[in-house]
């Protein structure tokens, strides 16, 4: 036996002896028992333990072949150039892709002194690589070169695609019933959702003419945070740690679930076909970025996901009024996507240097975007038609400090509120500004060539709001104790006239009725909840009232009722919601323990044509007489039902009281036995066994100094 073999044999013997001693100690047997564990035979040392058995849960984090190359992208269809133009090509490519993150390496394969038409780029972060793929796949460099961009790690997935296509199995149809059955209510009762008990309970109520709301559905822990209605009221969305659930139908059955861990924010497309969810929690189970996900509501399938580091400005995506397009702002880009392909419109983003904000028209596929003032370039407001990308109107603005866009609900007008510097001085080649004034740029969207009117205001602007269905707008201006509210009307021939100014008002919010004409001026939170109801037809104040410390005000979709609320999320005492009619008459007070949120259920657009609405208004007197009779009958019925419900509660209480008193009398012998035969139920007449004793004790000592 060789020396090495001898050493190995001796070492194995020692191991064998150590193992037998340990085995004997643990099992209480003699260590001299020979256990045949001769390690000298190689066949006795075969490792047949699998990785799954050895690693267990650690196997989930087992390194993958693609680790380390997730940050590499492949860009195909770039120009093939020689060495003389290679540096210029690199500068162009670098300028496009450095906006998504820092590039570590750039590799340009060559053949016979010419680039091969594809390159490899590596980022410091896989998220940056994913964003570069999303933003530049389909990017048109010129007429002959459109980029095809993929992650390097995707090639293995593409290579393993089966040769034979397998037809997917159709999903079974599930009948959810009539999702708009609440619109068939003969009395047109509007519904609203409330969250109370600190978020533990969620309820749906119908608002009628009676003194108490009509309960439709109520559940405990229906949502973990808050709820939201879809734009036309078809679905109720509830939030959960694992995702979003949609409910609807007569009994609010679950329609669909969407798995997105830690979801915090959602948004719906205007057509209710798609839903967008945001979660700041990274998805470790997926190779793709899933911070923002767009879902198909009908199928529950994920249509596309996007990378997003934060959602400080929400919604990230803004939808066109018909739901065919959605857009987002990037660095010097405006990306417009189309449905149902969810790809870039014309496979290319709009290059807009310094774009600050944008918004869609509420009724037309028109985008308005603004760019700030830089150096000698003025600020600019541009109206763009989609999908043609034709510029409808461009307005240049100077000395601009800030700009906000406000669309009228019918899309007839667009107001750009511009904050401007009033004075400009040049000192040592530097421009310095002092003072500030404000003006409104009013775009008349329905007139030829979209003329623009201007309204100037020297005082600070606190709030602005359009009349949803009319030609008026209002804004709060002033500061401190000199706050005023002004109402203007846009008239033909380029006239914008002041109608009325209400001075010295304690208000900070304007709430127009969805049907126009009526408006509520509210001083919420710090202004103690003052409410002022105004009819703008003749500018009369219908009522002035107060809901102390109110945090929210919201009109119902018909404009007949308005709710004011003190939310537990904003104020910890006096939590309740009150229902008013449009004239400011208080109808209901509903105090609830730790009341949090009230949301009216939206209604879809009316099916009535303009001619039908005009006919109804023409015959309003005839309809009013019918409704007055019906209202009186319903109020009588409501009063009767209310009295019956209250009497029922009184009867239930009396029955419960009799039951408790009977139990109390049955336990009387036990109480007397425990108290030495003394009847403590009536101690007022028993003066022999009880004596009265007065105890005095010191409460407080104060030292006084006599002058």
Describe the structure.
The chain is α+β, with helices and mostly antiparallel strands. Strands 20, 21, 22, 23 and 24 form a 5-stranded antiparallel sheet that branches. A hairpin with a 7-residue loop joins strand 26 and strand 27. The protein has 8 helices and 45 strands.
Short description, anyone?
This protein has 707 residues and is an alpha+beta fold.
% residues in beta strands: 35-45%
Query: Ends: how far apart?
Result: 115 Å
Helix tally? 8
Number of strands: 45
Structural class: alpha+beta
The whole-angstrom Rg is 37 Å
Residue stretches low in confidence (pLDDT < 50, at least 5 long) are 1-37
List keywords for this structure.
707 residues; alpha+beta; 45 strands
Which secondary structure elements does this structure contain, and how are they paired or packed?
Layout: H1 3-27, H2 51-55, E1 72-76, H3 83-97, E2 103-107, E3 110-111, E4 114-115, E5 118-123, H4 126-136, E6 140-142, E7 145-146, E8 148-151, H5 154-159, E9 190-196, E10 201-207, E11 214-220, E12 227-229, E13 236-240, E14 243-248, E15 253-259, E16 265-268, E17 274-278, E18 292-296, E19 302-306, E20 318-319, E21 325-330, E22 333-338, E23 343-344, E24 350-351, E25 357-360, E26 366-371, E27 379-385, E28 390-397, E29 400-407, E30 413-427, E31 430-444, E32 452-457, E33 461-466, E34 472-477, E35 484-491, E36 495-502, E37 509-512, E38 518-523, E39 530-535, E40 540-546, E41 552-555, E42 561-566, E43 576-581, E44 586-591, E45 597-600, H6 610-618, H7 620-666, H8 668-674
């Amino acid at each position: 036996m060789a020396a090495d073999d001898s050493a190995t044999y001796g070492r194995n013997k020692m191991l064998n002896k150590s193992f037998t001693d340990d085995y004997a100690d643990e099992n209480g047997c003699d260590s001299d028992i020979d256990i045949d564990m001769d390690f000298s035979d190689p066949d006795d040392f075969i490792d047949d333990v699998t990785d799954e058995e050895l690693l267990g849960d650690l196997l989930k984090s087992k390194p993958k072949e693609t680790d380390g190359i997730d940050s590499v992208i492949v860009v195909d269809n770039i120009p093939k150039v020689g060495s003389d133009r290679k540096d210029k090509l690199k500068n162009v490519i670098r300028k496009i892709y450095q906006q998504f993150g820092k590039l570590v390496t750039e590799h340009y394969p060559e053949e016979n002194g010419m680039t091969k038409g594809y390159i490899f780029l590596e980022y410091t972060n896989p998220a940056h690589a994913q964003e570069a793929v999303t933003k530049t796949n389909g990017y048109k460099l010129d007429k002959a070169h459109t980029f095809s961009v993929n992650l390097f790690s995707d090639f293995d997935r593409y290579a393993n695609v089966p040769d034979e296509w397998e037809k997917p199995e159709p999903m079974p149809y599930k009948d959810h019933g009539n999702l708009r059955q609440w619109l068939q209510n003969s009395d047109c009762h509007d519904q609203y959702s409330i969250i109370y008990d600190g978020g533990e309970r969620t309820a749906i109520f119908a608002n009628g003419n009676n003194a108490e709301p009509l309960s439709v559905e109520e559940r405990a822990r229906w949502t973990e945070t808050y709820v939201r209605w879809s734009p036309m009221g078809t679905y109720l969305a509830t939030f959960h740690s694992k995702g979003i659930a949609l409910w609807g139908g007569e009994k609010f059955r679950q329609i669909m679930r969407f798995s997105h861990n830690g979801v915090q924010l959602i948004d719906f497309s205007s057509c209710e076909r798609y839903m967008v969810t945001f979660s700041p929690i990274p998805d470790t189970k997926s190779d793709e970025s899933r911070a923002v996900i767009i879902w198909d509501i009908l199928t529950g399938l994920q249509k596309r996901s996007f990378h997003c580091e934060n959602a400080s400005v929400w919604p990230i995506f803004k939808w066109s009024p018909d739901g065919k397009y959605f857009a987002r702002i990037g660095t010097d880009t405006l990306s417009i996507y189309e449905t149902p392909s969810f790809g870039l419109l014309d496979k290319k983003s709009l290059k807009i240097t310094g774009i600050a904000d944008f918004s869609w028209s509420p009724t037309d596929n028109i985008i308005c975007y603004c760019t700030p003032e830089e150096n000698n370039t003025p600020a600019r407001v541009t109206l763009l038609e989609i999908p043609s990308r034709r510029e409808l109107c461009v307005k240049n603005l100077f000395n601009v400090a800030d700009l906000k866009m406000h669309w009228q609900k019918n899309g007839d007008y667009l107001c750009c509120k511009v904050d401007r510097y009033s004075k400009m001085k040049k000192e040592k080649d530097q421009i310095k500004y002092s003072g500030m004034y404000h003006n409104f740029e009013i775009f008349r969207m329905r007139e030829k060539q979209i003329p623009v009117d201007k309204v100037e205001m020297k005082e600070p602007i606190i709030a602005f709001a359009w009349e949803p269905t009319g030609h008026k707008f209002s804004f709060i201006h002033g500061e401190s104790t000199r706050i005023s509210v002004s109402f203007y009307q846009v008239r033909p021939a380029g006239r914008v006239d002041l109608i009325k100014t209400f001075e010295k008002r304690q208000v900070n919010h304007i709430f127009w009725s969805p049907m126009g004409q009526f408006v509520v001026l509210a001083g919420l939170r710090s202004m103690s909840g003052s409410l002022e109801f105004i009819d703008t037809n003749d500018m009369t104040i219908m009522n002035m009232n107060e809901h102390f410390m109110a945090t929210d005000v919201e009109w119902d979709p018909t404009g007949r009722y308005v709710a004011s609320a003190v939310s537990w999320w904003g104020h910890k005492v006096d939590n309740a919601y009150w229902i008013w009619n449009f004239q400011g008459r208080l109808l209901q007070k509903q105090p609830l323990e730790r009341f949090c949120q009230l949301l009216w259920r939206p209604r879809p657009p009316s099916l009535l044509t303009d001619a039908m609405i005009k006919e109804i208004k023409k015959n309003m007197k005839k309809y009013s007489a019918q409704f007055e009779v019906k209202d009186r009958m319903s109020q009588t019925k409501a009063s009767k039902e209310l009295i019956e419900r209250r009497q029922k509660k009184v009867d239930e209480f009396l029955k419960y009281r009799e039951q408790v008193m009977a139990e109390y009398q049955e336990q009387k012998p036990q109480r007397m036995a425990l108290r030495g035969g003394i009847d403590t139920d009536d101690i007022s007449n028993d003066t022999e066994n009880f004596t009265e004793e007065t105890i005095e004790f010191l409460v407080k000592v104060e030292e006084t100094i006599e002058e």
